[in-house]
Amino acid sequence: MRKLILVALLVVGITTFAQEKREEGKEKFTPEQRVDFQVKKMTKDLSLDTKQAEQVKNLLTQESQKREAKRAEFQAMRTNGQKPTEEQRKEMRAKMEAEKTVMNDEMKKILTADQYTKWQQKQEERKEKMVERMKEKQSDKL
Predict the structure, then answer these.
(1) What gap in Å lies between CA 126 and CA 135, rounded to an integer?
(2) Distance CA 36, CA 78 (A)
(3) Which of 61, 118, 120, 132 is the most exposed place for a label (fewest CB within 10 A)?
(4) 15-47: pLDDT as tens digits
C-alpha cells in the first residue's frame, strides 16, 4: 500500500514539474519584437528588398496594434465574466474575414507575383500546422 501511494505521488510530482518546465520555456515577445521577427523571416524567405521590408513592417505593425486592442477587449470581457453571443461571434468572424481580405490585398500590392504566391503557400502551411497542434491539444485533454 505504501509503495502504491509513493509511486502515485512520484508520478504526480513528475508530471507537474514537466508541465511547469514546458511553460517556462516559452518566451513572451513584445508585439514589436514579433513584428521584427516576422519581417526578418519574410525578408529571408521571400527575398524582400528594403522598400518592401519597410512596407511589410508598417502593415504588420498596424495589424499587430489592431490585434492587441482586440485582445485587450476580450480580456476585459473575460474578467467581467461575459461571453460573446452567437450573433457576436458571427460578426467577429465576418470582420476577421474582411480584415484578412484587406491584408491579402495590401500584401499583393507590396509583393511581386512570385513572392505573393510563396507567401500564400507559407500561410497555408502555417494554418495546417496550427490545426494539427489544436487537434493534439484536444486529444491531450481527453
Answers:
(1) 14
(2) 30
(3) 132
(4) 666 555 555 556 788 888 999 999 999 999 889
